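Structure first, sequence second, as always.
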């Protein structure tokens, strides 16, 4: 079976992503399988940029298909802070 790497170490996010991907024809694998791979620096201008950066980084590091996400808070009353 093909593997799909879930590129997060956040256990709550892992549960959510695993639930969303239930039934896909892939073995879902966490980053625990690659303990020596360091996290990339998140240099994107947007949450989407950072998710893309992480997915491409971990795909290259593991040789596997990879999904990643990035999220945070942007509060209008604070000028978008804390932001990305």
């Amino acid at each position: 079976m093909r593997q799909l790497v879930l590129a997060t170490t956040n256990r709550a996010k892992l549960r959510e992503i695993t639930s969303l991907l239930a039934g896909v024809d892939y073995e879902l694998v966490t980053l625990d399988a690659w303990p020596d791979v360091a996290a990339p620096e998140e240099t994107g201008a947007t949450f989407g940029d950072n998710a893309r950066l992480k997915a491409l980084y971990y795909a290259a590091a593991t040789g596997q298909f990879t999904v990643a996400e990035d999220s945070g808070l942007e509060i209008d009353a604070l000028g978008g802070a804390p932001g990305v």
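Margin note: The chain has a mean pLDDT of 94.
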